[in-house]
Design a protein that fits this description.
The chain is 75% helix and 0% strand. The protein has 11 helices and no strands. It has helices at residues 12-36, 43-61, 68-89, 92-99, 104-113, 116-121, 124-139, 143-149, 151-173, 184-207, 217-263.
Length: 277
């Protein structure tokens, strides 16, 4: 196979597309169950998760305009950055905890969310390293060329891109209840660091393609520009979400302090670290 042509992922594409659409259907069913019970759940979150599932399905089986490298980069941005952001904005863990009836399933999910392993995977520096570091390994070594020749490796690479993007987005946004919510300053610093690494990688790809590939100069330049500007757009959206959650957390802290002062507790009112809903 010529290193500039696309590889057929086989059944992995339709399976990924079906998984994205199935996840959206499960989410909508859980939200409907919550509303039938009389609980509120924002409709915009339904739309966000559904858009994420549809975006993932399109990235798995849809066709993109442009040459093979440009098409690949569009799919990478959708599957690794925009779809994860749409999923995370919908707060799926919070929905699951509210929709599940008290019992083994709910306890298991809460234990997983509060587990030490989940806490480390969502540690912002580690999540940023898995995300940005994985991209540098993919595009600045022979891995990309090899993956285009070997279908099973191609599938593993795309799974890593999706999983790493989801972990990083989850760690930056901090919207769902997990073992520990890291400080906004740390999350913001890792967002800036990952954005800088992403931009530097895009510039390097504009100058030279991945080792072992033979994309045309115009295709390579367009794909690198898609990565650069598309990455900036996704990271700007993440920054807005982070700033909004930071502002909301600050407002809640001020409300607690004001309530404590009114109650005469000296600003030491009881505090819950985990909010479900």
């Amino acid at each position: 196979m010529h290193p500039g042509t696309a590889v057929d992922p086989g059944p992995a594409g339709p399976v990924t597309a079906a998984a994205g659409l199935l996840a959206a259907a499960v989410y909508l069913s859980a939200a409907a169950r919550l509303r039938r019970r009389g609980d509120a759940w924002p409709r915009w979150r339904d739309a966000s998760f559904t858009a994420g599932g549809a975006s993932l399905a399109w990235a798995a089986v849809g066709s993109s305009p442009g040459g093979p490298f440009t098409a690949h980069m569009v799919q990478h941005l959708v599957a690794g950055m925009f779809a994860p952001l749409l999923f995370v904005l919908a707060s799926p863990v919070t929905l699951a905890l509210r929709a599940l009836a008290p019992g083994a399933g709910r306890r298991a999910l809460l234990a997983l969310a509060h587990s030490r392993g989940a806490g480390w995977l969502l540690f912002p520096p580690l999540a940023a390293l898995l995300d940005a570091g994985g991209l540098w390994l993919l595009y600045r070594t022979g891995l990309f060329a090899t993956a285009r020749e070997v279908p099973w490796l191609h599938v593993l690479v795309h799974l890593h891109v999706m999983a790493a993007g989801l972990l990083f987005t989850f760690s930056v946004c901090g919207l769902d209840p997990v073992r520990r919510r890291w400080s906004p300053r740390l999350r913001g610093a890792m967002l800036l660091a990952a954005g800088a690494a992403h931009a530097a990688l895009a510039r390097s790809l504009y100058a030279a393609g991945p080792p072992g590939t033979a994309f045309s100069a115009s295709d390579l330049h367009t794909g690198a520009q898609v990565m650069y500007y598309g990455g900036d757009l996704a990271e700007a959206a993440l920054a807005v979400v982070l700033a909004g959650s930071w502002y909301a957390a600050t407002g809640r802290a001020r409300t607690r302090r004001a309530r404590a002062d009114r109650n005469g507790t000296g600003g030491h009112a009881p505090r819950r670290d985990v909010r479900v809903g």
